Every structure is written in C-alpha cells, then in structure tokens.
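Model it.
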Amino acid sequence: MATRAEGGEERAAAQRDAAMAALEARLGHVFADPALLRQALTHRSAADPRRGQLDSNERLEFVGDRVLALLIAEWLAERFPEEREGDLGKRLAALVAQDALARVAEGIGLGAALRVPAAEGRTGLRGRASVLADALEALLGALYRDGGLEAARAFVRRAWAPLIEESPRPPHSAKSRLQEWTLARGLGLPEYRLVSTAGPPHRPVFVVAVRAAGREAEGMGESKRAAEQAAAEAWLAGLAEP
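Modeled.
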C-alpha cells in the first residue's frame, strides 16, 4: 500500500506530466526527445547536486538566449525596414528583457510546468520574473535543439507578435532616458553603484543607487540590470516632484 507521501509524490508527478503536455500543445511542437523538455523545465534548485547541476536548465538557457536574440533581430529587420540600427537595437533590448520574457512565459503557463522543490514551490518561486525568463530561454534552447531553427522561429513569431506590435516607435529604457537627459545638459554620464545584495543564489535581490546632477535614487531588482533600471526610473520620477 502506498504511503501518503508516496501518493503525494505520484500526484505531483502526474500534474507535472499534464502541465508538460499542455505546454507542448501551446508551443505547437511535440518533442522527439522529451528529455530536452524536462531539462528545460528543471530549475537549478531541483537539479542533482551530484551531477554539478548539469541536469538543470542553465545550459539550455545559454543556448536559448542566443537563439532568441537571432530570431528577434531577424524579425525586426524584416518588420521595420526603414529603421536605423540604433533603433532596432532598442527594440531588441526591450523584447529580450526579463519583463518581456516573463510576460510570454506567463502567457503559455510555463510556471505550472517548472520542476522546483516542494518547499520552493510554496514560496512562489515559479512565479518570479527572473525564474520565468530564464526558463523561457531554456525552453527556446530545447526547441532549437529538438526541432531546429524553424521550430523555434514559429513559436517566437506567435508568442512575441503582440509585444512587437505594441510600440510603433522604438522604446527608450529608463537608463537611456536618464543618460540622454544628463548628456543634453553637459552633466556627463550617470553613475551607478551596487548598494547591497541579499537572498539565496537562486533568488537574489539587488539594490543599486544612481547619482546624476547632484541627486541620488535607489532601485531594487532580481538582477543588477533590473535594479539599475529601477534606480533610473526612480531618479526620473523625481523630476516631476514639486
């Protein structure tokens, strides 16, 4: 007779299998090598430490990051034939940023299929933007490895279409806007510094301060880049204050 713990593990495994099948349907691709999909969905906290976490999704994330950049760059060059390289670069940066990746991941229900330890699952790890973004890149890496560039391209062009059409003009990040503001006034470049880092390695929280025009502001994020953007947003918000 199965114990209660064993029964719980079996139910969890069945739920993960169902979530993986649903994810394949949303991707429009059935994996010839299901092991690639399982690896893409394995957060490093659930990886086997005896294997040096090589069964986690980090290596596929490395591949998927490059695949995504290529496919988005290719698409932008087709979609906006009159734009200069600098403007295309701004669009690319926004479309491969963590926020955009997390939005796409949420739209396909990626979080429900992620393999994380039960304790981490209860803390909301599956819903963290950084975790979702990394897993989506790993999923793209797995798609590329299993079905080639065409499989990855078909998914990217479906999933990112709403984001590409959102901005008729190239976006400007907070860091870019702050830099343009200071340079236009001959004040030089804003200066960023890391204030603190907290949390475990797989759930870090960074605090960054930016100083420009004699004023400082701080921002927080799940990566130093995100914290820098938040700090720049906070600094720019201060311009509107009385």
